[in-house]
Amino acid sequence: MDTNNTRRLADLININDQELAAIAVSGIELDSREVTAGDVFLACAGFASDGRDYIDQAIAAGAVAVLAEQDERWPNHSMRHGIPIVVVEKLSQKISAIAGQFYKHPSQQLPVLAVTGTNGKTSCTQLLQQLLNALDKSCGVIGTLGAGADGELAAGINTTPSAVAIQKLLANWLADNISTAAMEVSSHGLEQGRVQALQFELALFTNLSRDHLDYHGSMQAYAEAKARLFRQPGLKHAVINIDDNFSSSLLSIINDDVEVTRFSIDAAQDKNKRIDVWVENISYHPDGVSAELHSPWGEFELHSPLLGSFNLSNVVAVVSSLGVLGYPVATVIEKLQVLGTIAGRMEKVTSATDINVVVDYAHTPDALEKALVAMRQHSEGDVWCVFGCGGDRDQGKRSLMGETVQRYADHVVVTSDNPRHESASDIINQILGGVNCPSLVEEDRAKAIDFTIANAKAGDCVLLAGKGHEEYQQVGDLRVPFSDIKQARLALAKRAGVSQ
């Protein structure tokens, strides 16, 4: 309950009954376990469970009213234990607006920068936060790594939190005088309406490749979900990666009143395209990448400590976004030198050994290809790749990921990822359907990492792909503690002969 944020039920929804309209509401919750006295419980027909099954628990916890998804099961308003249950048609799609009403639409006052795309969302939002902080501007961030505005991220379940959680976070940040929010916007979040009532200052598109087909069913449906962000009412700026084939489709649906900025790291690809920000004379080296940046704000020498061409694209995306918003690009370019590591995103595992080990979250064929290409760009030795595929997810990409690793790595090590409710060995066999070169199969991920680091030759590089920042393996319903980074450090210490 939030005693400083009391509303009437009529402030949240249109309701004709004056007695119901006058009910005082001090909070809104989607989870019956979080309900406290004075709250309204939003009982949606969810994807994994039905909130209407938990109405009794919410009432017992002190709910003063329940808004329930209307269907044949719940066709009319009713009372239960003296508490009104108000049925709302398509409630799930209205949660963002209801939460916006309760929290007084904070995104209309706090600039929110949205990042969408298959890969690069986390990196771009984290880079936006780091660079804005370096410019002495406070920035909250919401995404895969969690949410926070002070350097400490509170872990979340989803890349894009619930519609209620988002509005509450933004309202709190507005009250705390945070200047900007940067958030990852996933296809699930767009499809499920979690950001439907938000007003975005800027939307950034990174790329589109195969992912989440277990949910969306087809690439067309997946692409259409991503495109929704760029039709969001109130959007002011769109920053588009025109190196991606989907960019032309996006550009065709953006409203004329939205200022569009196009960026590229491969401007030579198509001289006929309009490009606003681009780089050339790119040089990859062990300490990062350098390039010449051309933009409406001038020409600059760009130096980034981040590895790979895809990270160069992320950096150009973020520089373009900040330039569009009026920040001094020369200063932004200068601040690139102090960028810190992004957890589980081409993260170097520091050690004094003779090989390089990098942990990356790459879990799609496209992301895996880009990560392996980056390893080639920054190393002269052999490339080893330890990877698997997640269970209960798109099975069609498994052999494709096997093909990708075979094409770009010198040594293929296939292991488990998050098997969830599938057999790890069955997943591995599907991966091997795309592999026709000699490879090591070791289902135990720790043993696979240990073997690879022990057997790599001096000057080689090792990519541990798929899990990135995660500190667990999902096996069935259990989250078993496990970290690629921690396991790699143990293996590196053993290689160096250091006791742990």
UniProtKB/TrEMBL annotation:
**What are the subcellular locations of this protein?**
Cytoplasm
> Which sites bind meso-2,6-diaminopimelate?
393, 417-420, 466, 470
What sequence ranges are listed for the domain Mur ligase N-terminal catalytic?
25-102
Q: Which residues bind UDP-N-acetyl-alpha-D-muramoyl-L-alanyl-D-glutamate?
A: 30, 32, 158-160, 186, 192, 194
User: What superkingdom heads the lineage?
Assistant: Bacteria
Chain sites annotated for binding ATP: 117-123
**Cofactor(s) required, per the database record:** Mg(2+)
Limits of the Mur ligase central domain: 115-319
Pathway participation: Cell wall biogenesis; peptidoglycan biosynthesis
Keyword Magnesium annotated: yes
UniProt EC number? 6.3.2.13
GO cellular component entries = cytoplasm
For the modification N6-carboxylysine, the affected residues are 226
Q: Which GO terms describe its molecular function?
A: ATP binding; magnesium ion binding; tetrahydrofolylpolyglutamate synthase activity; UDP-N-acetylmuramoylalanyl-D-glutamate-2,6-diaminopimelate ligase activity
Keywords, comma-separated and alphabetical: ATP-binding, Cell cycle, Cell division, Cell shape, Cell wall biogenesis/degradation, Cytoplasm, Ligase, Magnesium, Nucleotide-binding, Peptidoglycan synthesis
Stated family = Belongs to the MurCDEF family. MurE subfamily.
Known role: Catalyzes the addition of meso-diaminopimelic acid to the nucleotide precursor UDP-N-acetylmuramoyl-L-alanyl-D-glutamate (UMAG) in the biosynthesis of bacterial cell-wall peptidoglycan.
Q: What PANTHER family has UniProt attached to this entry?
A: MUR LIGASE FAMILY MEMBER (PTHR23135), UDP-N-ACETYLMURAMOYL-L-ALANYL-D-GLUTAMATE--2,6-DIAMINOPIMELATE LIGASE MURE HOMOLOG, CHLOROPLASTIC (PTHR23135:SF4)
Official protein name in the record: UDP-N-acetylmuramoyl-L-alanyl-D-glutamate--2,6-diaminopimelate ligase
Query: Which species is listed as the source?
Result: Oceanicoccus sagamiensis
